[in-house]
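Appendix B.2, paired examples.
Example (i):
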Amino acid sequence: MSLQLYFAPGACSFVPHVLLELSGAEFEPSMVKLHKGEQNSADYKAINPRGQVPVLVHGGQPVTQILAIVLHLDQLFPKLGFLPTEPMARARALSTLAWMNNTVHPTFTHIFMPQKFSDQPEVQAALKPYNTQLFRGMLGELQALVQGAENQGQAWLSGERLGALDAYSLTLARWGTIAGIAASEHPVLWRFVEKVAADPAVSRVIARERLQLNMAPQT
């Protein structure tokens, strides 16, 4: 099995990066330095013409987009429980994963890269605080999901095994601190994030990507 993951440190590519590390399979992690524009190089666009991360290359075939990659890895390693198998539990997990990817994630992009949505400086300046408030509320929703899982006796968001939702939760919570949302605003979520980060496979990914979990200014 030939597996290669193109990732950017701290990006949403953290999710499949964690799943691959959890799998125990051999894979080649290939860093893409977004700040240097490597995603726009001719070589990279030959793999993904959209110039985005992540890209999973399996047997020479590229797979793009988080949802597709997660589903592919779940099928490659069905015994690892990256997603639930029971139909309703699986549907709920996919619903949460889609919400993280198509709603929470783009909201942060409006904060971190407002230039993608307007070329007017005054509009860019307005986008940041407005979307920060939206993102704060979404982290509150995520905290409620964590609390609900704990109330049901689940160790992780999808059930008994650490998977895609847990890795994405860590990413989104970390992004919140980049946006200036203190970890203390969502204590249940952050206790959970620290538990995710303590998993040996996740710790290896954090070390490889050289991530600081809480990016809020230290006082």
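Example (ii):
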Amino acid sequence: MGVRIRDADQLKVKEDVFDDITLLSLYKLVHKKWLSVIGGSISTGKEANVFYGERDDVAVAIKIYRIRTANFTTMSSYIVGDRRFSHVKKAKKELIFAWTKKEFSNLVRAREAGIAVPEPLVWNRNILIMTFMGVGEIPFPQLRNAEMDDPASVYARILSDIDILYNKADLVHADLSEFNILYGDQPYLIDMGQSVTRDHPRALPFLMRDIRNINRFFSNRCDVQSDVEIFNAVTGLNTAKP
């Protein structure tokens, strides 16, 4: 394939990840010089695996959505109602390809709005390549495992990100929690495949869920605002109850 593969034995056993479609996509990305090294696993999520990689000695993250084992029903609930993907067929393979494109698009919008997220570089079918968030080959820890000198300032930064994401990028993360935020010199939002536009029919419930998750995590680490107070400040609405 013209690419140096580390931990080759590890890749061979992950048959649910490296199926024929994925291998063809990897071949195309290597052929177009997007990858020169495929390394070991960084993380395994509900729908995707992330691997360390390099492009001409520059670290990248290779996110591969699993075609065989991804949760089709869960993914459908975030695609349906998103006007950007109303044309997508409901076959599983096409849905996963659309999901990959959706995450790429959402990361672009978030970065353009000034949110700290990985820079999306390219996508092909079920593979997304983006900048690697870490030092050396070690990824930044998830927020739940991070040591924070000043939790209150991190909390304030994340609330600001939620606001900017909604009001400038027209997006709701829709799965924001201590699992989907990395912490290095600052918090970085990740895993934006499920993020929806503000006009999505479930955007507001998703937003409230994000706020509740963040407040739950920080509630024993610093003073937090009420869920409703944050929700109203972000949306400009005046709801009286969560």
